[in-house]
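Anyone? Bumping this.
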Amino acid sequence: MKHLNSAQAKKRLVDGNQRFVNSTAALHHEFHPHRHTKDTQDQAPFAIVLGCSDSRVPIETIFDQSFGDLFIIRIAGNIVAPSQTGSIEFAISKFKTSLVVVLGHSNCGAISAAIDECINKTNLSGSLHSVTDRIKPSILPLISLNLPNHELMDKAVEVNIINSVKQLQSQSTIIKDAIYNNKLAVIGANYSLKSGAVQFLA
Ligand SMILES: [Zn+2]
């Protein structure tokens, strides 16, 4: 595949999601090993996606993309922690991929857990804190607004996406340099479980 700049890469995702929403997706996502042997040679993903682990958000499917197209990092709440940043830096350095998308989604369980922790002071078990501790700073300013539950949830999802984008844009020299040299864009996007549509935030 020829190298795409960030605008071309975004358009390919927008078009793919449109096909998914319209039920005209080109791919049926069947796996035939002999058809994909070319993918064992090398890869040239046109976009990097940092998405949530939620089982209802299969990233290749919602963008109607296939083998070798997307470099995907999935973690609950699409949070930015050092290993996520490192994976993204790897893809940028190795494949010269020009677009990073932070993909959040409606009714995210990780966001819901973080809201619950803030409001009800619930105690999460095990290592769950390592996820919610990275979400809580984004949503704390919203808690005092006394919004209706669904509105608080929607806004928390969006602000968490935006904060992940900002962290990626500011915390990594490799990412900062690529953006400065017009070789990379980092943008947010929000997937609706209800409609299947992805709304790009930039
Ligand atoms: Zn989620």
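Late reply, but here is one note on the structure posted above: The chain has one domain: 6-22+43-200.
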